[in-house]
Amino acid sequence: MVCVGIDVGSTTSKAVLINGNEEIVAYSILRNSHNLAASGRKALDIALSNGKLSENEISHIVSTGYGRRAIGFQNAAEPEIICHAKGTVKMVPTCRSIIDIGGQDSKIIELDEKGVVKKFQMNDKCAAGTGRYLDKLAADIFQVGVEQLGQISLKSENPLVISAQCTVFAESEIISYLSQSKANEDIIAGMHNSLAKRVIDMGKSAFIKFKKDIVFSGGVAKNIGVINALECLLRQKVIVLEEPQLTAALGAALMAKEKSGA
Ligand code: ADP
């Protein structure tokens, strides 16, 4: 039997299947369609197929994330902060701080020595400070996929300052840099620095101390430029897991196991 965690985020749905030893046996990561319920269902079906498992081998399902109540087939829906903390601590037991940057929100979570959430701060009101900022600028201005930004920024020798606090105004600032023939890599490195600074400032405003070990999760953690920008501003290393988008779904799967009594 397996326990399932499904994280229906604003941009992607993730499903994680764990066995009785709390080991991941299969997972999926899927870009959402406009229909969150169908996206969550599809993420589960793909994970089951990846693990060559059938639905009647599932003992319990916990959903989390922005669309956690949309899917309808879960046994329970749990808040994402708790699921992020549980999943991250499972992977990195020494974690004390989580920086999660997803498609349309960002979160900073502070944990105590036992991995229990002490404080958190979240931005889901403004695109700047989330993956959306990079998605939009990559597509609208540079006509590249967001997955290319990190590598491009590594060529930068003189990162530019993007001071606008808002994605729309940042776009104007960038267009102005382009009209001055500034290099794409220097602008993109500036975008990464601006995003990293915004997220760190959000944590500081809630008196979060960024104690180590710091785990950087969410889809934006796949961007080497943002990893470098965070490490530079924090003056310490951040840990990035091989699949940084899965931690909340893993936490939900662990909760499913607790609830199932397995
Ligand atoms: P959510 O859980 O909020 O739905 P995710 O944590 O899955 O979102 O993050 C989605 C965001 O991650 C995308 O909007 C994009 O900015 C970024 N992202 C996803 N894949 C990559 C990649 N390969 N390289 C760089 N950024 C990525």
Give the key terms.
262 residues; Nucleotidyltransferase, domain 5; alpha/beta; globular; 2 domains; 40% helix; binds adenosine-5'-diphosphate
Q: Helix-strand pattern, N to C?
A: EEEHEEHEEEHHHHEHH
* CATH fold-level topology of the largest domain: Nucleotidyltransferase, domain 5
**Class by helix and strand content?**
alpha/beta
Q: Count structural domains.
A: 2
Ligands in the model, by name, code or SMILES, are: adenosine-5'-diphosphate
Question: Alpha-carbon distance between the termini?
Answer: 9 Å
Order of strands across the main sheet: 3-2-1-4-5
The CATH class of the largest domain: Alpha Beta
Which stretches of 5+ consecutive residues score pLDDT under 50? none
Q: So, CATH architecture of the largest domain? A: 2-Layer Sandwich
Rg, rounded, reads 19 Å
Mean pLDDT: 96
Number of strands: 9
Shape: globular
- Give me the CATH superfamily of the largest domain: ATPase, nucleotide binding domain
Helical element count? 8
The main pleated sheet reads as: 5 strands, mixed
Helix content: 25-40%
Strand content: 15-25%
Question: What does this protein look like?
Answer:
- The protein has 262 residues and is of the alpha/beta class.
- The chain has two domains: 1-92 and 246-262, 2-Layer Sandwich (Nucleotidyltransferase, domain 5); 94-240, ATPase, nucleotide binding domain (Nucleotidyltransferase, domain 5, 2-Layer Sandwich).
- It contains eight helices and nine strands.
- Strands 3-2-1-4-5 form a five-stranded mixed β-sheet. It has a four-stranded mixed β-sheet with strand order 8-7-6-9, with helices on both faces.
- Helix 3 (131-142) packs parallel to helix 5.
- The longest helix has 22 residues, at 184-205.
- It starts with a strand and ends with a helix.
- The model has no long low-confidence stretch (mean pLDDT 96).
- The protein binds adenosine-5'-diphosphate (ADP).
- Adenosine-5'-diphosphate (ADP) is lined by residues 9-12, 102-105, 131, 134-135, 146-147, 218-220, 222-223, 245.
- The site of adenosine-5'-diphosphate (ADP) has 19 residues, from helix 3.
